[in-house]
Amino acid sequence: MKYKRLGRTGLLVSELCFGTMTFAGKGFWKSIGQQPQEVANNLVAKALDAGINFFDTANVYSEGESEKMLGKALGKRRQDVVVATKVHGRMGPGANEAGLSRVHIMRAVEDSLKRLGTDYIDLYQIHGFDPLTPLEETLRALDDLVRSGKVRYIGCSNLAAWQLMKSLWISDVNNLHRFETLQAYYTIAGRDLEREVVPLLQDQQLGLLVWSPLAGGLLSGKFHREGEGPEDARRSDFDFPPVNRERAFNVVDVMREIAADHDVSVAQIALSWLLYQPVVTSVIIGAKNEEQLADNLGAPEVMLSADELARLDDVSALPQEYPGWMVSRQSQNRVPQSAKGK
């Protein structure tokens, strides 16, 4: 297992992060996974044995049950790992039991600490954008949590480029702790992030944590262009995230060929491609059973050649859009002639 620096911090996290969205399966989350505590304990132990030191959850997953189960599964190993959780989603019927107000954040962090059975959270992430709460209020509340010691670092998820850049500016001018990571959807079949967000992350030195790296199972190799797939797969009951299926299956066709050449699964090729992307800090994997986990854990061992990476990049490339194509065209004139041949 390789370890990478989390954003600009000195914290090292495993390139694979174990996600716990499949734990418990309460309420809305039943279609995603329903692992009981004993299965969760086993999967977490397997992940730890494989060198994973990074675990991701959220307070909304199974209405808090995922956090409880992760805390129990880690037990005495909690001090050895990096735990990330999130705040934003609705946790009760009250008017202020959702969003990113100071009131909700302060209540939510205390509840998450109790459920996780810990006195600090390594990475506390906002789960999305709250149009009702000023970013200044949210960032000040998060800064207070870091200064209090209840949170070590802060991150965000599902923000647009302008929202993220505005947040970083607010933190900078007010001397607040800033977001160190973005957790976002990014796959070989969904490279939209590369238009605006990836350049921002690279310029501002933020870490990228990838959620749903197999596009909700669509890139597992178990689905076919004709629509056939396993009945117990998540996509069968929960068709998310949205994917251009024609483009996705064009990518899967190439991945099948490369997977066959390496004698590995299609899923491992999809995960391996992400691990080759310089902007990626850690890829969040989830598993319903030991077999899935073992397959995902094998992805870092897949060595893709330059030709294979080129084939995958070509078939999955984003259509050019303005101003991207104009920026690219005009930038060519700024490259010194002596450097073009290097």
Q: What are its keywords?
A:
342 residues; alpha/beta; TIM Barrel; eight-stranded parallel barrel; 10 strands; 40% helix; 15% strand
Topology:
Blueprint: E1 3-5, E2 12-14, E3 16-19, H1 37-49, E4 54-56, H2 65-74, E5 82-87, H3 102-116, E6 121-126, H4 135-148, E7 151-157, H5 161-173, E8 179-185, H6 197-204, E9 207-211, H7 234-237, H8 245-262, H9 266-275, E10 280-285, H10 290-297, H11 306-316, H12 324-331, H13 337-340
Parallel strand pairs: 3-4, 3-10, 4-5, 5-6, 6-7, 7-8, 8-9, 9-10
Antiparallel strand pairs: 1-2
Helix pairs in contact: 1-2, 2-3, 4-5, 8-9, 8-11
Q: If strands are numbered along the chain, what order do they take across the biggest sheet?
A: 3-4-5-6-7-8-9-10
Radius of gyration: 20 Å
Low-confidence stretches: none
Question: Whole-Å distance between the termini?
Answer: 33 Å
Number of DSSP-assigned strands: 10
CATH topology: TIM Barrel
Give the rounded overall mean pLDDT.
94
Quick one: overall form?
A: globular
Class per helix and strand makeup: alpha/beta
Number of helical segments? 13
Q: What is the share of helical residues?
A: 25-40%
